Structure formats: structure tokens, C-alpha cells
Amino acid sequence: MALLDISIVNAALPTIQGEIGASGTEGTWVATSYLVAEIVMIPLSPFLVRLFGLRNFLLGAAVSFTAFSVVCGLSTTLPMMIAGRVGQGFTGGALIPTAMTIIATRLPPSQQPIGTAAFGGTAILGPVLGPIIGGWLTDNYSWHYAFFLNVPVCAGLALLLLFGLDHERLRIGELRRADWLGIAGLIVGLGSLTVMLEEGQREMWFESAMIVKLAIATVFGFALITAGQLRAESPVLKLRLIFSRAFGSVFVLSLVIGVVLYGVTFLIPQFLAINADYSALQSGQVVFISGVPALLMMPFLPLAIKYLDVRLAVIVGMVLIGASCAMDWHLTTQSSGGDMTNSQFVRGFGQIFAMMFLNQAAISAVSAEDAGDASALFNAGRNLGGSIGLALMATLQDRQTFIHFHRLGEMVSANAVTTQEWFMRAMAGPGGEAGAYRQLAGQMLRQATVMAYNDLFFALGVAIAITTPLALFLRPIPSGTQMAMH
């Protein structure tokens, strides 16, 4: 549910903007505000679980998530919508990493691979189901139901938590030992960094005073986190884990997978809307294809987790993701969703292998007492990679389109016979000479745009190829042992 809400509003965003009176730029905050709040909360979750206890923390998060979902569904103004989305992000970010605690502490060892497989399936299906469910609800009912959908699910979740988990006492002592410098640094640093990445391209990066201020706030926030690592008895997040070879490899790989996962879900709908005039629902259906392998492999994942070497599985997953990117860097102006079916299917298999086994590798790389921090860092890394990926995709798309447009212009020779013949035919149509120039510019822009998308898929493939060897540094899970995930 929390992962679904990251992307469920994307398809409904144009409709939401119109009804709450938001401009295109303002409307992007409906999605951005959720992501910013979530990425701040994920690393804070281990500390809050220790403070409140698992059941109390999850109950509070589930009930609050329901309330904020209702606020979003009832919103009539942009500030009200953003307030609801920020609340959803904070409470949804609490649900994602702590879900693994239930698997590790409440399931018997023999059932933990099944729990992990089910959790991994939701982690992949959430982002790909979001656009198609949001688009279907908006087209057939109303965008409000994209938020009201959470109410019955949250009610069921609250009941399961009440009856399925034991009550734990509040640990007030954690407040005295808390790393307040680190907590403040996470809020300021990660929040500012995420907003900077989301808004950077629209604001022309460091030409904007706002982006400069956000960059300064990011540096200040990370300075506070560093101070907390040095001074606190129990840092809010054990960043030292990143400097170990095994977990550092996991973290970098999760960053790159986040870049690809969120980058592709941004590129495909954009390309299909521009090049093939697809609706949001049609684009969502193409994106959903990558979730089909997760459904197909679900019955076999527990066995795979039990018997496959984690390093081999991650390498296979990364190679498949890289291959899917290679399949998409030969797009043309005639390409449509059907041309992306095979690559999406291959990408889906790659994602299920890479993400599922990286979950395992993250925990096997650290001691049992550090499992919660490892899970938080892993999930935060994936989401941070998503923010970086979206920022890079938007920036590179504009720059590469500009470069290719001008290169194409340099290749068109006014003295060439084919050019002159084309102009004679175009000038005979509506608009005369001016119309011919507009038609030529339009064709060049379309070609340049497609070439830019090919460059972006190529860049994603290169990023995968560079980081795949890091899988060799992962620590294999000892045979006969069970995971202790957070």
C-alpha cells in the first residue's frame, strides 16, 4: 500500500491539478512531497521502533496513513493536498522497512523465505501497479478513489496488527540516548537533497537561488549527521556499515537499481505520450508488464532464496536489467508500446532477482543487531537512487534533445537536391514557406527527442554494467541459516 501510493497519483495528476487549481509546476509537488517525507522517515524507522515498540509504531502509522489518505481524497486546494501527501509519506515510509521486522521476528524459520518472497513481490509490483490503478480509477470513477482505496486496506491492516503482534512497552530511555543531531540532520539533509533533485531541472539548477539554498541546507544536514555519528552513544543510523566491503556493495547496487527502476517508470510513459500519443492508462499497462515476472516467479522464490547463491542471483538480475536497457536504446519515431513488451518482461525478471537477493545480502553483510539499520539504509538507498534517477533523466533528456536537434540542423543542407525537393512539396501545402519551416523543425525535434531517449536507456545500461561486478563482493548466506531481516 505504501509503495503503491508513491506512483498511484502520477496517472491522475493532470485531473487533480485541474480540480484543485494547481499549475503544472505546482502539481508536481503532489508527487514530490510524498517522496520527500518518505525518504526522511525510512532511516528514522529503526529508532522509532525501539522507542514505541513494533506493534504500537505500526498501528500509529497505519491509522495515520488512513487519516492522511482521507485528507488527500477530500482536498480542494493545493496546500491541503500537499499536507495530506506529506503525512502519507511520513507514515508510509514507516511501513516499508518495518514490514520486514514482522517476517524476521514473527514467522518460524521455515516460513521466512515465503514471507520474504511475498514482501519482495509487493516491493516490485507497487510502483508498476500504481500508474495503471490510478489511471483506471480516474478514467472510470474519480481521482478521489485513488486515495479512498487505502481506507478499507488500512482498516484490515490495523486489525491484523492488533491480533497478530504482541504489545510492547514504551521505552522512554531511548529519548535520552537519542541522536538528536543525527535526527535533525536526516530531516534537513535528506529532505533538502530530495527537493533539490526533484526541482533542479525546472529551476535550472544552480542558476536558481532556491537550489543554492537547498544545496547549503543539504551540506549542513549531512554535517549534523556526521557530528551525530561521532558524538552519539547510539547514532540514529549506523553509516559506518556503508564502509564495509559487503554492505557498501549492497548500498551502491541498491542506489543504481533505484535509478533504473524509477528512471524507467519515468521514461516509458513520457516517451509513449510524446511519440505514440498514449494515454496515462495505456502507458501504465506497458509499465505493468515488468511486474508480470514477479507474479510468475512468486511460487518459486522461496526455493530460489534457499538454494541459489546470492552473488550469482544478483549478477543474473543485473545482467538482465542491463540487457533490457540495451533492448530499448534502438527506439525510432515509429516505436510504440508493443516494441517495449520484450524489454519490460526481461526487466521484470532482472528486478525480481536483483532486489530479492540484495535484500538477503544486505542482512547477511551485518550482524543481527545491525539488521534494522541495514534494512533502513538499503530502502533509503533505493529511494534516494530513485530521486537521483528522476533528476538525471529530466536533465539529460532536455540536454540531449537540444544537442541532437542542433546536430540534425547542421546535417540539413539547403543545397542538397533532396532538401530542395522536400521543401517544394512542403511549401505547396498549407502555410507556404513558413509552414514548411515549422514542419521541418517539428520533424527534427521529434527525431531529436527519440535519439535523446535512446541515450538515456544507453546511460542506464552503462550504469548497470559498471556496478554489476560489485556483486562479487557480496557475502553469501551460510547454508542452513535463516535470515534476520528488519
What is shown here, in short?
This protein is mainly α. It has helices at 4-7, 13-20, 24-52, 54-73, 78-106, 112-140, 145-148, 150-164, 173-177, 180-199, 209-231, 245-276, 280-288, 292-297, 301-307, 310-327, 341-364, 371-411, 417-427, 432-467. It has 20 helices and no strands.
Tell me the Rg in angstroms: 24 Å
Number of strands: 0
Name the poorly predicted regions: 480-486
Q: If you average the pLDDT, what whole number results?
A: 82
First-last Cα distance: 18 Å
- State the helical fraction: over 70%
Treating each run of at least 4 consecutive H or I residues as one helix, how many helices? 20
SSE sequence, one letter per element: HHHHHHHHHHHHHHHHHHHH
Principal-axes geometry comes out as globular
Largest sheet: none
Q: Please identify the structural class as seen in this structure.
A: mainly alpha
Sheet-strand content, in percent, reads under 5%
